[in-house]
Amino acid sequence: MAALTKGRNTLERSGDITEPPVKGATKIFAGGLVAINASGLAVPMATVTTLVGLGRAEQTVDNSAGADGDKNVRVGRGIYKFANSSAGDLITRSDIGATCYGVDDQTVAKTNGTNTRSPAGKIHDVDADGVWVKFN
């Protein structure tokens, strides 16, 4: 493209919301931890190593009867509270700033579970009710 010769309307995104396509035969629930799989499709976080945490589902999207990409899901990229894992994977305040790992679409853990879990996000805070996870 050639250099501008007049002003243009450059589109903008805040970065707080993204809308990736959803994997076929998949349902994502509002409030759930959403991940992107190796094909760039949105899925609920699960205990597998091929995902990357994206954020919180802003809506329920049912693509159960659809093919890959038939529907998109709104995903918030802020700081959200999820359930804390238990026992040896319990996240504490001393873990703030570290990466946490997805157990399922509502739970995060301190470790990658001996290389069975994908990174969910960064631990922002921890309280008695759960773990605040930051998504960039």
From TrEMBL:
Domain of life: Bacteria
The protein, known as: Bacteriophage lambda head decoration protein D
Species this chain originates from: Mesorhizobium qingshengii
